[in-house]
Design goal:
mainly alpha
Length: 134
């Protein structure tokens, strides 16, 4: 099922980022933001926890039918998260205050924003409906 692939890809992407921010904010955040204060590392861990929670939501819904009215409680938060994250990352990278390699993060984030927005407004894919157990 296509919904399964989308949910698994999103869960994997968020899992990697969430675990990194949860367990290594002292390595990641100073490389992204010069002069990042050590006293603010908790903020990175809090963000990592939120990403892990969204990854868990995606993982648990990997077998569900997603799109349109189906799975809206999963699709809408993902679409909102990925869209907002893409806009923030593009603004940060284009302001030249962030490293250029951060575009590597922008591309999958933008792709996921597009996929979840498409699912939100279009509905489930025909293949998902055909393969759904009855």
């Amino acid at each position: 099922m296509n919904s399964t692939l989308i949910s698994r890809a999103s869960a994997s992407l968020l899992l990697v980022g969430g675990l990194g921010l949860l367990f290594a904010p002292d390595v990641i955040l100073p490389r992204l933001i010069t002069g990042y204060p050590e006293a603010g590392l908790w903020l990175g861990q809090l963000l990592g926890a939120a990403w892990l929670a969204l990854a868990e939501l995606n993982w648990l819904s990997r077998t569900s039918l997603l799109g349109g009215i189906y799975g809206r409680s999963v699709v809408l938060p993902n679409a909102a998260f990925y869209f907002i994250a893409t806009m923030v990352l593009i603004k940060a990278v284009s302001a030249h205050s962030m490293p250029a390699w951060l575009w590597i993060v922008v591309i999958p984030t933008a792709l996921m924003a597009g996929v979840y927005s498409w699912l939100l407004f279009r509905g489930p894919m025909a293949r998902d409906i055909e393969m759904r157990p009855r």
